[in-house]
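Handoff note, outgoing to incoming analyst
You'll be picking up this chain. Sequence as last confirmed:
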Amino acid sequence: MFYDFNIPFPSLPNQEDLERLDRILSRIQSIQNATVAFNVSTSDPFTSKAVEPVKRDQFERGGVTLLTRVTIEAENPKKNYQIVLSNAANQSVDILAVRPLTLDATKHACQNYDVDIISINCASKRVIPNHAAAQVATSRGIFFEICYAQTFHTKERALFFTNVKRLVEVTRGNNLIFSSEALRALDIRQPSDLRMLGLLFGLRRDQVEAAVGHNCERLLLKAETRKSTVSAAIRVDMIPSAETVAQTENDNKRKREEENVGSKKKKKGKKQ
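Most recent structure output, in case you need it:
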């Protein structure tokens, strides 16, 4: 299974944008079965009004599962971006991410935001968290995203590789995923290419395999849990009362007695 949780979706797509997205999906479909997320970015607080839902019907195709994702661009950690579990808008997206634009915003995201992904722009300066903040994020089940297509669209390639290696160091190679952030079909890379790229970043082979596969599955499970969570309490079925349990036991006992009586009658009839 091929995973890519960051295919940018423009806020006001025109026909050219739609054709470009269609070519990207065709490229992904030619690789193997895939799970792909259309990503809508916004700097507004996370509300259902601020984020328009993506109409996925026109992009559906065999072998490709389409998800919706929202990425909040956070610059000021003191601003209320409403990235909390109690936000009703959580139910409207499959994956919720934050892209911190400053180091303080990154630290705040690691410690406080209820998101699935912290998407790091590795082509920017001073956005990589320190070891303590990164470990807090991983302990909370948050995943760090490395968008490899950034190397194709920036002149800061040396800075990109430096930041990625630093991110690998502070996370100890844990809870990392690779996404493309592809702006064109040629930006999409094969899983074998991503494995080679992961080794260049300093990941072990098992960590590379996790970044392109297992971590993505874990992320989807976390995202589903987030959607079914309200005010930090996981939704569970109601526990039956003692009276209900006693009534159920009595009913079962009565059924067993009736079955025993019926069985004895059958045996007596056979003897006669």
